[in-house]
Amino acid sequence: MTDAKTEDLASRVRPALTKLYVLYLRRSANSDLSGPQLTILSRLAENGPSRISRIAELEDIRMPTASNALHQLEQLDLVERIRDTKDRRGVQVQLTEHGRAELDRVNKERDSEMAQLLDMLSPAQLERAEDLVDIITELAEVYGNWKEPKSDS
């Protein structure tokens, strides 16, 4: 249950975050990969080889959706399937060298785009923005691991 203060803050910050996100993605889209495909590559870079079911869980998508996305990434030689070392019947997916290089390239381009955006801030605003990095990072971690409670209805 949220209180009036957090509801007010949410209604003020949400439109700005949405607008910033959409503009940022449009201007930094120097890749043929979709946002979801890039997040899957990022998850594999962070977590190492993973089962498709784990990727679906982390991305909060259905198994067929994850399987389809991974198939497309495999066709582009960005990921490859390998035997699960703990369960030889199982299959995991991992980044290829090409996948890691493509992810690094896109991340560098997006970092550069974000740096140009941050260059528009005054020194005082930049200092305030620096203070927000930890809060935004923590929110992203908490939100990424948060599961909405199931209702009893």
UniProtKB/TrEMBL annotation:
Keywords: DNA-binding, Transcription, Transcription regulation. It comes from the Bacteria. The keyword Transport does not apply. GO terms for molecular function: DNA binding; DNA-binding transcription factor activity. Gene3D superfamilies: Winged helix-like DNA-binding domain superfamily/Winged helix DNA-binding domain (1.10.10.10). Signal peptide: none annotated. SMART domains: HTH_MARR. InterPro entries: HTH_MarR-typ, Tscrpt_reg_MarR-type_CS, WH-like_DNA-bd_sf, WH_DNA-bd_sf. It comes from Corynebacterium callunae DSM 20147. Pfam families: MarR (PF01047). This is HTH marR-type domain-containing protein. Residues 6-141 form the HTH marR-type domain.
